[in-house]
Amino acid sequence: MTKTAEQKYFNNFFEEKQLPYEMFEIEHQGQAHLIDTDFVIELIKGAPQAEQKQIRNTLVKIDFVNGNVNHFLKFLAESFVKTQY
């Protein structure tokens, strides 16, 4: 299977950034869900291509201003929990 441009970008981006590992605790409907950075990154890599493009654009903007990538990953984790549970 050929990797898309987004998948190559994500592999390079996360390898170069060496983000600190973080465990996100997401509260939803009275339940606590624990999701770590590695899980969120795998979700990103497996997302539909249109979503990958949006995520890539957001990461480029965050990186440009030296923003907190883990803050964005937590946002994505919250979105995942709210749509899956």
Overview of this structure, please?
This protein is 65% helix and 14% strand. Helix 1 runs parallel beside helix 3. The chain is built from four helices and two strands. It has one domain. Strand 1 and strand 2 form a beta hairpin. A two-stranded antiparallel sheet has the order 1-2. By secondary structure, it is α+β, with helices and mostly antiparallel strands. The N and C termini lie far apart (31 Å).
What fraction strand? 5-15%
Poorly predicted sequence stretches spanning 5 or more consecutive residues: none
Shape: globular
How would a textbook summarize the main sheet? 2 strands, antiparallel
By DSSP (H or I, 4+ residues per run), the number of helices equals 4
Helix/strand-derived class?
Answer: alpha+beta
Sequence of secondary-structure elements: HEEHHH
Number of strands: 2
Q: What is the C-alpha radius of gyration, as a whole number of Å?
A: 13 Å
- Count of discrete structural domains: 1
Helix content: 55-70%
Average residue pLDDT: 94
How far is the N terminus from the C terminus? Answer: 31 Å
Strand order of the largest sheet: 1-2
